[in-house]
Design brief:
- The protein has 4 helices and 2 strands; from the N terminus they run H-E-H-E-H-H.
- Helices cover 26% and strands 4% of the residues.
- Strands 1-2 form a two-stranded antiparallel sheet.
- The chain is mainly α.
Length: 106
């Protein structure tokens, strides 16, 4: 194949029929847009309950098993909306909270 040979372009139309997100500092698309438009960042110092500095932190870059940063972006903690992702209470308790967020957003 020569450099100027290209695969044929697909002519199939694509439609985006929905968008959703939960990101650090934004609980949805509108909040995310407001965050961006205001020039703000949701990256901040991680609280002690989310990063055990004694166990996981070292200021020395390259220390095996440690991070040298105490910054991060956290998704807001709130109970999942059962209307968006209906699960039995027993099932909900068994699921990882991150999985529930994924299901809710999807």
């Amino acid at each position: 194949m020569h450099n100027n040979d290209r695969a044929p372009l697909l002519k199939t139309p694509v439609a985006i029929v929905g968008m959703a997100c939960r990101l650090p500092g934004a609980d949805g698309l509108e909040e995310y847009w407001q965050l961006l438009a205001a020039g703000r960042s949701a990256i901040d110092e991680l609280p002690a309950e989310r990063l055990d500095r004694q166990l996981y932190y070292s200021p020395v870059k390259g220390t095996r098993g440690k991070t040298y940063s105490t910054l991060g972006g956290l998704v807001s903690a709130r109970p999942p909306d059962g209307r968006l992702c209906p699960l039995a209470d027993e099932t909900r308790r068994a699921y990882d909270p991150c999985h529930q967020i994924l299901c809710e957003v999807a």
